[in-house]
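This protein record is not my work; I was only asked to verify it. Take the sequence as given and treat only the tokens as open to question. I have pasted the whole thing underneath without changing anything:
***
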Amino acid sequence: MNKNYFEIIRAGVNTTFQDKGRNNLYHIGIPFSGAMDYRNYLLANKLVGNKLDLPVIEFAYQGPLLKYNGDKINIAITGEVIFKLKKRDNEIQGNCYESYLIEDGDEIDILSTNKSVYGYLAISGEFDLKLQWGSCSINTKANIGSNDGKKLENKQEIHISKINLKQEKKKADYLNSKVENIRVIRGTNFDYFSEEGKKIFFEKDFMVSKLSDRMGMRLEGPKIENIVNTNIKSEGLLKGVIQVPADGNPIIMLSDHGTIGGYPKIGVVASVDYDRLVQISPGSKIKFKEIELPDAETLFKLYEMETQNLLSQI
């Protein structure tokens, strides 16, 4: 029996294992999945000295309360997260983007994400997980991935197969930025919508619905009029595609999305804005801004360069 493990006292709202996701399986109906906020996933691994593709614990809204049993290990939490470390008789208010050494009997209490949705917990080592199609990422809609494709549960144990011996204190000077507008490229069915519908899409505010999860973000707001057909022959979908069903309220496909769909597609979220899009909490308002494909490509390259610069400074 492995002696290093976490005991889950409180599992949290939506706590799963995630990594980079799985590639090239759309043809059999399997989406990428993986960490919703990719930059924060990478930063979490870097802060504990891991290889950047190792699994982490992703949580939403309220995170888990974990009791650690075993040898000393470093942990780091990224995102906008309120958490505490309980060490014997001492309680420490934790800071995101900073590594902490925890010991046998210590507890990590992840209270909430602060005005955002997703946070990440990485350890200086490797969780003992089974891969499926080269990834441990959990898709709860399809029961795919490690932990039998299910969320983590109370009283469960999370075993650690390996601990890094080199455990340096690390810190990142990083502030999660907000997006004023979500930049989008026109979708393949853009002309299905009336001129007024297109104008509404780009000029009006939409509110993020509570009916949003890792599969999709439902929006509420002024109705977007379809003048051709509210249903089409099912076509392939991508992460970030914005579908508009018959009720006129957009749905943005997220990391666990279905791979085909029959609603017209008005736009696609530019990849540069995806990490920040998924952190917009229910009840918040968002607005769309149209950009061209070459601009979206340039912006994403710059975002990737910025991410690499952040990682290199840790």
The radius of gyration is 20 Å. Helices lie at 38-47, 195-203, 274-277, 293-312. The mean pLDDT is 95. Residues 293-312 form the longest helix (20 residues).
